[in-house]
């Protein structure tokens, strides 16, 4: 009996000791978990629930900073703009804003101009930065790229200013001429002279308004919505007919040639206007008794064959400085010549927009005193690919560059030598 009691007492004591040891081990483990370790000190703070999802759908570049100014979260756009480098915010003004916001909790916003990444050349990046506290430990930075918006606004301001100036000139001339007509009511010859000048200014004003309408239309419309196969021969014939009278007055020879029976796909009216503008410029800026040539050919390209239409003149040429700007609206290489010919400065801008909207491009080769060559490159329509290309004897072109045709040109629009296409 005494032996059984001793065993029971020993078992009870052992159970109590086990319980005490287990309780002490649990508390030690809990305390150890709460104690900061070297690893936990370097763990990034956790974003509040839902913030990561919201940041992923924002259009703005987003950066989240912790107390040590380290980047906790950054969107891909923030890296693309060069805001984050090496896990740190690389823009000092934004970093200072974040520190100030962390200190006083106030939301701050500022617009900055940042240099472009790489060599730093070109237009600076215009951004709007907004900093706000995110919880008690984090700071959120949102950056919006305003570069394109500023560029569009600058273009709009320039366009409005240029249009106002261009409209003011003929309107002012009409006002002065009308006063002159009233003052010369008793002089029929003076009235007739002033009336003629009024007709010229009215025509210039009409052309300017029409070209503004055309430019607005080609910028807003999609020509491929109602695209159709268009014969290049017909476009060339229409451009020549449009300028035949002006060319005849200056005794300028209009020559057409190249590969016949080519087709492009697009809006016929817009393509005819673009080619007509090029031919008209060539005639207007060429001296008397010179030559203007239009030639078309097919060229190979990785994405499919292209149709090149080159307009070559022997005019005054374009300097290297002006070649970069000739396709800008209202830009004129020779303002005095433009006033004499009634040019509005919108013709080449219309050409550029028409060709770009048709999936092509326009290029220019020119040298001062040696003339110019404007070349349209447009995707070929499928109709042309089904026809065999012409041989050199069939296309009306000599085998030697710049030579005369070896056989009569059979194009339906003109029986003239084919022009030499400058590089």
Descriptive report:
- With 423 residues, the protein is α+β, with helices and mostly antiparallel strands.
- The chain contains 13 helices and 14 strands.
- The chain has helices at residues 2-34, 38-41, 51-57, 76-80, 92-104, 147-183, 188-220, 232-249, 268-284, 320-323, 335-341, 347-357, 382-385, and strands at 61-65, 71-74, 84-85, 88-89, 108-114, 125-134, 138-145, 228-231, 253-258, 263-266, 291-299, 306-312, 361-367, 371-379.
- Helix 6 packs antiparallel against helix 7 (188-220), helix 8 packs parallel to helix 9 (268-284) and helix 9 (268-284) packs antiparallel against helix 12.
- The radius of gyration is 38 Å and the shape is elongated.
- Residues 32-44 and 384-423 have low confidence and may be disordered.
Q: Which radius of gyration do the C-alpha atoms yield?
A: 38 Å
Low-confidence stretches: 32-44, 384-423
Order of secondary-structure elements = HHHEEHEEHEEEHHEHEEHEEHHHEEH
Strand-pairing-aware structural class: alpha+beta
Helix content: 40-55%
Distance between the termini: 122 Å
Number of strands: 14
Question: What would the principal axes of the Cα set say about the shape?
Answer: elongated
Strand order of the largest sheet: 2-1-7-6-5
**Largest sheet geometry:** 5 strands, antiparallel
- Mean residue pLDDT: 76
Strand share of the residues?
A: 15-25%
Continuous helix count? 13
């Amino acid at each position: 009996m005494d032996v059984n009691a001793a065993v029971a007492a020993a078992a009870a004591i052992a159970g109590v000791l086990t319980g005490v040891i287990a309780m002490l081990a649990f508390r030690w483990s809990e305390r150890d978990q709460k104690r900061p370790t070297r690893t936990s000190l370097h763990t990034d703070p956790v974003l509040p629930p839902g913030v990561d999802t919201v940041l992923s759908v924002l259009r703005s570049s987003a950066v989240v900073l912790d107390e040590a100014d380290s980047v906790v979260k950054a969107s891909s756009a923030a890296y693309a703009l060069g805001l984050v480098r090496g896990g740190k915010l690389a823009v000092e003004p934004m970093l200072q804003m974040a520190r100030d916001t962390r200190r006083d909790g106030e939301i701050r916003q500022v617009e900055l101009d940042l240099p472009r990444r790489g060599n730093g050349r070109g237009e600076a990046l215009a951004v709007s930065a907004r900093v706000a506290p995110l919880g008690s430990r984090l700071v959120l930075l949102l950056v919006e790229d305003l570069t394109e918006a500023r560029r569009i606004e600058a273009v709009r301001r320039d366009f409005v200013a240029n249009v106002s100036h261009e409209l003011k000139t003929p309107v002012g001339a009409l006002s002065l001429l009308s006063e002159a007509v009233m003052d010369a009511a008793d002089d029929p010859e003076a009235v007739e002279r002033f009336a003629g000048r009024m007709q010229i200014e009215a025509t210039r004003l009409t052309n300017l308004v029409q070209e503004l309408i055309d430019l607005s239309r080609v910028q807003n419309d999609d020509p491929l919505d109602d695209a159709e196969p268009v014969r290049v021969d017909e476009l060339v014939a229409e451009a020549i007919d449009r300028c035949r009278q002006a060319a005849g007055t200056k005794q300028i020879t209009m020559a057409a040639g190249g590969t016949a029976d080519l087709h492009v796909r697009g809006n016929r009216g817009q393509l005819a206007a673009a080619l007509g503008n090029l031919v008209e410029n060539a005639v207007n800026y060429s001296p008397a008794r010179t030559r203007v040539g239009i030639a078309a050919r097919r060229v190979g390209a990785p994405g499919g064959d292209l149709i090149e239409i080159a307009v070559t003149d022997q005019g005054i040429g374009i300097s290297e400085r002006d070649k970069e700007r000739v396709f800008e609206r209202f830009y004129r290489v020779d303002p005095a010549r433009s006033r004499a010919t009634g040019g509005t400065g919108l013709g080449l801008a219309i050409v550029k927009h028409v060709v770009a909207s048709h999936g092509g491009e326009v290029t220019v080769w020119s040298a001062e005193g040696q003339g110019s060559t404007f070349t349209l490159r447009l995707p070929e329509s499928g109709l042309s690919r089904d026809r065999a290309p012409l041989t050199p004897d069939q296309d009306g072109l000599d085998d030697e560059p710049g030579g005369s045709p070896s056989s009569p040109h059979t194009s339906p629009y003109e029986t003239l030598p084919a022009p030499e296409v400058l590089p």
